[in-house]
Structures are given as structure tokens and as C-alpha cells.
Amino acid sequence: MTVNGETHSLTVPARESLLEILRDRLFLTGVKEGCGHGDCGACLVIMDGKLVNSCLVLAGDLDGVTVTTVEGLAGENGELHPLQKAFLKEGAVQCGYCSSGMILSAKALIDSGVPLTEESVREGLSGVICRCGTYPRTIAAVMDAAQTMRNGG
User: Fold this and answer.
1) Closest to 142 measured CA to CA, from 70, 52, 82
2) Which residues form the 2Fe-2S ferredoxin-type domain (predicted)?
């Protein structure tokens, strides 16, 4: 599989989850384990262009896939992605536990081409539970980042 642009060949038990592989074998700790049942969104990643709960994807389904984690959004020189910058600017990262899921959900939403309104952003981020309640800041961050991205930033 390819993770954040790097190809990895791993031998793992077929029942090991993508979440476990990312955190325990590839040391990509931006992805978090929240509920372990696909309900909270803390473990979201983009796999083959689609947003998935990494806790629900088993190793047996990973041959040849491409995965992007929050770490993979940063530029080659380590510069933060506009979404990451906007989340920091708007203070949408209080405890940080849901942040990677929120940021990847926002990226998937923006990439989908759906017209962004407060309502569409709320719907696009509805799969991630934020226990700190930063939803208004998160929506502002997504709108800000989307504008920056549209302007070539």
C-alpha cells in the first residue's frame, strides 16, 4: 500500500486494522482511536480518494490501496496545508483528538466540489464527534481554508 506518497510492503495479520497499522507499524499517530466502532471519526483517513474509518478497514483489504493521513497533507518542505493552518488560526484544535478526522473530512468535502455553506460544512463534518465543542470554530476554519485554496494558496 502507499501511505502519504510512500510505498510500504508489510506482513501483518489479516485481522489487524488500518488504524493499528498506521499507528503501531508506521508510527503515524495523527490518526486516533476513539470508539473503535466507526462512530466517532477520530480515525478517519482518505483511502483511494474516499473518507474511511481506519478502525473498520482490515489489513486483508489494503493490498494496492493509497492512504492519506493528516501527516500527508503537509507540503514537501513541511509547510502546513491550508486546512491545517486555518484550524490553528481559528482555534479549532482545542484538545486535538478529533482534529485529524475533522481536517480530513473537510479536505474530502472541499475536494468533492460541493458548494460550501455553513449547512454543507456541518453535514460534511457530521461524522466526527468533537468533545470540546469547537464546531463553530471548525466551520470558520473550513470556510477560511476553502477560500485560500480557491485563491491558489
Assistant:
1) 82
2) 1-73
Question: Is 67 in the same domain as 89?
Answer: no
- What's the CA gap between 107 and 141, in Å, rounded? 12
| pLDDT tens string 64-114 | 999 999 999 988 888 999 999 999 999 998 888 999 999 999 999 999 999
Using the 3D structure, point to which of 72, 101, 124 is the last residue of a domain. 72
Quick one: 57 and 91 in the same domain?
no
Largest pairwise CA distance in the chain: 45
Residue 109 near residue 149 (C-beta atoms within 8 A):
no
Cα–Cα distance between 22 and 26 in angstroms, integer? 5
Residue 6 backbone phi and psi in degrees, to 5: -110, 130
Closest residue by Cα to residue 23 from 38, 8, 43, 4: 43
Rg (CA), the chain: 15
Q: Is 126 left (phi over 0), alpha (psi -120 to 50) or beta?
A: alpha
